[in-house]
């Protein structure tokens, strides 16, 4: 495929009627050189997220926290000078697998996605050979100023607990969330990490324990949706910015096409994702807080 899109992405683009629009952006998927402005952006970050598989093959998305300088980019290599701590699902994740990293600056509402192969794993450092790297627009990013408190030695204060399903406190976090991270994967094109945002309540929780959220207009690449229609394996990450808690959920998703403008179709795209949780992990005591909030003007009203 000269465009760089895989079959799942093309199928969703075709049904959404945006093949031409997506093709004009296919250059974003070319092999990157991590120099110049992208290298400087990564070097200034203090928050990133990682999607990969644990030792049993389950897909998870984990937060990565560090002082500016913990993301080091050179040519097509990204060095991450931290790693998921002991107890987290992706602690000592197997190297050689396809992974995805997204670097976030919530204060200026910018994000960069990097997809590639994990080439080295140590207790406090990861290395990734990057095959794709590109930025996304600021849509739906809620503006926050992240504050760290004691990153050094923070691992000693974090506690990760595993659950067989969502607990009431998890459901409360999800229904109040205005942001989450979506991790997906493709059998040959690898993993992807993307940001989702909206007004609190945009992620719905049903009595069955399933979650669903409406799709909002974006760049028309449909990287996440293309992965989901090919491989339903999905990972979600919710961050509680008031308490320093990370809620990680591994499960499966399906893309649903609904009548545009139906109840819950907030942006009238006619698309939503239904997610079934399988494994749940919650980590408390992480050294980040963000108590200020300016909601994105792009958030559609809930319906």
Task: Explain what you see.
The structure is a single chain. By secondary structure, the protein is mainly β. The chain has helices at 7-16, 19-23, 36-43, 168-176, 223-230, and strands at 47-53, 59-65, 71-74, 77-80, 98-105, 110-122, 125-136, 147-148, 159-163, 179-186, 190-197, 204-205, 211-214, 233-240, 245-257, 271-284, 288-289. Strands 9, 10, 11, 12, 13, 14, 15 and 16 form an eight-stranded antiparallel sheet that branches. The chain has a seven-stranded antiparallel sheet with strand order 2-1-5-6-7-4-3. Strands 8-17 form a two-stranded antiparallel ribbon. Strand 12 (204-205) and strand 13 form a beta hairpin. The longest helix has 10 residues, at 7-16. The protein is globular and about 50 Å long. The N and C termini lie far apart (39 Å). The mean pLDDT is 94.
Summarize the helices and strands and which ones pair or pack.
Blueprint: H1 7-16, H2 19-23, H3 36-43, E1 47-53, E2 59-65, E3 71-74, E4 77-80, E5 98-105, E6 110-122, E7 125-136, E8 147-148, E9 159-163, H4 168-176, E10 179-186, E11 190-197, E12 204-205, E13 211-214, H5 223-230, E14 233-240, E15 245-257, E16 271-284, E17 288-289
Antiparallel strand pairs: 1-2, 1-5, 3-4, 4-7, 5-6, 6-7, 8-17, 9-16, 10-11, 10-14, 12-13, 13-16, 14-15, 15-16
Helix pairs in contact: 1-5
């Amino acid at each position: 495929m000269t465009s760089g899109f895989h079959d799942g992405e093309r199928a969703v683009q075709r049904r959404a009627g945006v093949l031409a629009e997506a093709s004009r952006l296919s250059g974003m998927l070319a092999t990157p050189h991590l120099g110049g402005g992208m290298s400087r952006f990564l070097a200034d970050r203090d928050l990133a997220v990682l999607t990969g598989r644990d030792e049993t093959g389950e897909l998870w998305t984990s937060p990565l926290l560090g002082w500016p300088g913990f993301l080091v980019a050179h040519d097509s290599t990204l060095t991450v000078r931290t790693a998921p701590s002991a107890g987290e699902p992706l602690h000592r994740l197997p190297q050689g697998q396809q992974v995805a990293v997204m670097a976030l600056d919530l204060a200026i509402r910018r994000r960069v996605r990097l997809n590639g192969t994990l080439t080295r794993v140590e207790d406090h450092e990861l290395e990734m050979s990057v095959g794709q790297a590109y930025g996304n627009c600021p849509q739906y990013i809620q503006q926050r100023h992240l504050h760290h408190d004691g990153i050094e030695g923070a691992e000693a204060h974090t506690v990760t607990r595993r659950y067989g399903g969502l607990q009431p406190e998890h459901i409360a976090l999800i229904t109040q969330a205005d942001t989450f991270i979506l991790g997906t994967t493709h059998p040959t094109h690898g993993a992807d990490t993307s940001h989702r945002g909206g007004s609190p309540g945009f992620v719905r929780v049903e009595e069955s324990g399933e979650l669903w959220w409406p799709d909002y207009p974006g760049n028309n690449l449909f990287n996440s949706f293309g992965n989901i229609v090919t491989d339903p394996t999905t990972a979600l990450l919710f961050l509680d910015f008031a308490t320093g808690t990370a809620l990680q959920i591994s499960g499966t998703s399906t893309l649903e096409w609904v009548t545009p403008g139906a109840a819950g179709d907030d942006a009238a795209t006619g698309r939503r994702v239904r997610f079934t949780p399988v494994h749940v992990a919650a980590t408390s005591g992480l050294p980040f807080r963000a108590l200020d909030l300016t909601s994105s003007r792009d958030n559609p009203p809930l319906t």
